[in-house]
Design brief:
Layout (H helix, E strand, L loop, with lengths): L31 E6 L9 H9 L6 H13 L6 H18 L6 E5 L6 H10 L4 E6 L6 H18 L6 E4 L7 H21 L9 E8 L3 H5 L12 H21 L10 E6 L14 H7 L7 E5 L8 H4 L1 H12 L3 E4 L7 H16 L41
Parallel strand pairs: 1-2, 1-3, 3-4, 5-6, 5-7, 7-8
Helix pairs in contact: 1-2, 3-12, 4-5, 6-8, 6-12, 9-11
Length: 400
């Protein structure tokens, strides 16, 4: 690739990020924000082609695609994710205008229209050469970070614009207060609701808070985050979720003014597994975790979609349908807390992340609510490898 020359170690990076610092401390005059989404079908005819896009190269049989297609067809073949991204784009534009920041927002998807290559062409047509990307995923793993970075690189190559457009990416924002605060508010409100609706509820023994995120192959989890950080076999992916969950529970408990002897039980659980039974994925599955509570003191279950930024299909089907049905089967009172969506605190936080890079804010001055952050502006070598596919060219990270 032509961009890794003359001392530049990061593909298609702006000069401030080209040599791969952990945190960029030089200001960069970006032309536009690239909002990068997963994408989703917007009609019945789109469902199978969309699922083929998502699973390309993985050898998923058609019958498995048909099983997943049922989830989308239950909702008319329309995933809410594109509409959520339209709303997020509009909210970002409104917040930028409110703060008098002249940065247009371009939106592109990995797996459905508008596709990333089309948006890169649009940027070129409008004369934008320095883009700062926000991926709609907060944590570190192959599918939630590196794959976005690979898709940016592929879009530049496909369009022939790798020599004229530079793409940086904001840091993974799992522990940015703008992302975390909506979950704190949601857990606080859910526990208050449980207390109102269940007489004499003991928050210290009779409630279980389940923090749910997308399961991923154990091999991918082990490779998430830089090896030098010394994470366990579940890697940075699980460590980040657990760290955020601890912060959420501590803040929600403080907001409820619980005494020091009351600790609300919680656990990290996983959902939406799609791999073959022979391949280990992160566990426990949320439904298994719910059923395991049967016969114990639990009366109420609070489901927190900690791994998700909006109410897309896997929240609506796997949590609002399957997990809540599991709670009903076991006789538990249950509720699901909101995702950040377009919460003003979240939207403001995303703009703040862009300004970190625009202004070259030092790492010491960057807000983060766990000891793991602030995460890196430029991903470290070997970060978030896909063991099955190997390393492909990617922007916003040191090779491989």
């Amino acid at each position: 690739m032509s961009n890794i020359t003359n001392g530049q170690l990061v593909k298609a990076a702006t000069p401030a990020a080209a040599e791969g610092p952990e945190w960029v401390s030089e200001p960069t005059a970006y032309d536009a924000i690239l909002l990068a989404g997963f994408g989703g079908p917007e009609g019945q005819d789109d469902v199978i082609p969309f699922l083929r896009n998502v699973t390309r190269g993985r050898g998923i049989p058609e019958e498995r695609l048909e099983e997943v297609a049922h989830h989308y067809r239950h909702f008319g073949g329309i995933s809410p994710i594109n509409e959520h991204n339209r709303e997020l784009k509009a909210a970002l534009e409104q917040e930028l205008a409110r703060r008098e920041i002249d940065l247009p927002v371009l939106w592109g998807n990995r797996n459905w229209d508008p596709y990333l290559p089309d948006v890169v062409r649009e940027a070129s047509d409008r004369g934008y050469t320095k883009l700062i990307a926000i991926a709609t995923s907060a944590y570190s793993s192959y599918s939630s970070c590196r794959q976005y970075r690979e898709d940016f690189a592929m879009a530049l190559d496909e369009t022939g614009l790798a020599d004229s457009i530079q793409i940086d990416k904001v840091r993974q924002f799992f522990d940015h207060p703008g992302f975390v605060q909506p979950f704190i508010d949601g857990v606080r409100d859910a526990l208050l609701k449980a207390q109102r609706e269940i007489d004499g509820l003991d928050l210290g023994t009779e409630v279980q808070v389940l923090f749910s995120t997308h399961s991923i192959p154990s091999s991918d989890a082990a490779k998430s985050g830089p090896a030098a950080r010394g994470f366990d076999d579940e890697g940075a992916y699980a460590a980040q979720h657990r760290a955020v969950a601890e912060v959420v529970m501590a803040a929600a408990s403080a907001a409820l003014e619980l005494d020091s002897t009351t600790t609300v039980p919680w656990q990290l659980v996983f959902q939406s597994r799609s791999g073959p039974p022979s391949m280990p994925w992160l566990e426990p599955d949320i439904n298994d975790a719910i059923h395991a509570l049967k016969g114990g003191p639990t009366k109420a279950v609070v489901i927190v979609p900690l791994g998700f930024v909006s109410d897309h299909m896997e929240v609506m089907w796997d949590l609002d349908n399957e997990a809540l049905e599991s709670c009903e089967e076991e006789g538990f009172w249950a509720t699901r807390t909101p995702t950040p969506g377009i919460d003003p605190v979240y939207v403001t936080g995303l703009v703040d992340l862009v300004l970190e890079r625009r202004d070259g804010v030092p790492a010491a001055d960057r807000p983060h609510v766990t000891d793991l952050g602030p995460w890196y502006d430029v991903c470290r070598p070997g970060c978030c490898e896909n063991v099955r596919l190997g390393f492909k060219p990617a922007v916003s990270g040191l090779v491989p």
